[in-house]
Structure formats: C-alpha cells, structure tokens
Design brief:
Layout (H helix, E strand, L loop, with lengths): L6 H21 L2 E7 L5 E8 L6 E6 L5 H6 L5 E10 L14 H30 L22
Antiparallel strand pairs: 1-2, 1-4, 3-4
Helix pairs in contact: 1-3
Length: about 150
C-alpha cells in the first residue's frame, strides 16, 4: 500500500507539525526591538526569537545612519532604541515592567498576534488528531480495477 492511500497517516503528520509550530510561537521567548518617539510611543518594531536575551537601551543621533547629514556638521535630534525581553506568550520578561509606557505597549504588539495564531494552531492540531482515527479509508471504497483494467465484464 502506498503512502498516498493512507489519509490517517497524513492527517496525523500534519497535526503534529502544526503542534510543533504552535509550540514555537507560544513557548519561545521574544525580544522586541523598537525605537521610541518623542512622545514615548514605540515605532519601527521588529521581533527576535531567542532563548538568551539582554535588555538594552541605546541613545544615538537620528541621522546616525544617514550619509547626507554627516557632512553638514549639524547636531541632530536623539533617538532611543530599545531591545526588550518580552518573555513567552504567557509570561512577561524580567524587565518589561521597568519600562511602564513603551515596554508594555511594544510587548503587547509583539505577543498578541502570535498568541492568537499559536492558540488557533493548537486547536487545529487537536482537531486533526481527534479526527484522524475517525477517518474512513477513502480509497478503499473505490472499486479495484487491477493491472488489466476493469475485470467486471
């Protein structure tokens, strides 16, 4: 029997893969890397996945990466760059409470979509594992034609 004629196997394989992906989304710690505006709101968000993170706050000129402003010699505004450990989808990071304004907002923006997607994938994987033993053999109900074609003549 070929693997293509085993729907239970494929449903279980896909369900386990979905569970592993959900585990990655829900259990691996995230680090939010963002810039803080003058009003104290986070923008330019990016997410890093890592088990070993360190919280950092850097302050540098806004024109630090621009080539044009380096030649003028003008002093530019300062920008705050933050790298904050947000923890997993169910826990908070160690220093998340130390940045009460932008830290909570940034971590919420990073964690909320992944939490919903992860929980949705858990439900999808559970539904697949629940339904796999209940699948009928779809191809076993088809009439067998054998190598010579249809033998019913």
């Amino acid at each position: 029997m070929t693997l293509l004629r085993r729907p239970r196997f494929w449903v279980r394989l896909v369900s386990i893969t979905v569970f592993l992906l959900a585990g990655w989304l829900l259990l691996v710690p995230r680090t939010a890397s963002y810039l803080v505006s003058d009003e104290g709101r986070p923008y330019d968000m990016s997410v890093l996945y890592s088990w070993d993170t360190s919280d950092q706050t850097l302050i540098f000129p806004k024109a630090f990466f621009e080539e044009d402003s380096a030649d003028t010699g003008e002093s530019s505004e300062l920008v705050t760059s933050v790298r904050l450990d947000c923890g997993t989808a169910f826990t908070s990071g160690e220093n998340e409470d130390a940045r009460p304004g932008d830290g909570e907002e940034a971590c919420s923006e990073v964690e909320t979509p992944r939490r919903f997607l992860g929980l949705g994938l858990v439900l999808l994987g559970a539904a697949g594992l629940w339904s796999a033993p209940r699948l009928s053999r779809l191809l076993s109900r088809m009439p067998w034609t054998g190598p010579q074609g249809n033998r019913e003549r």
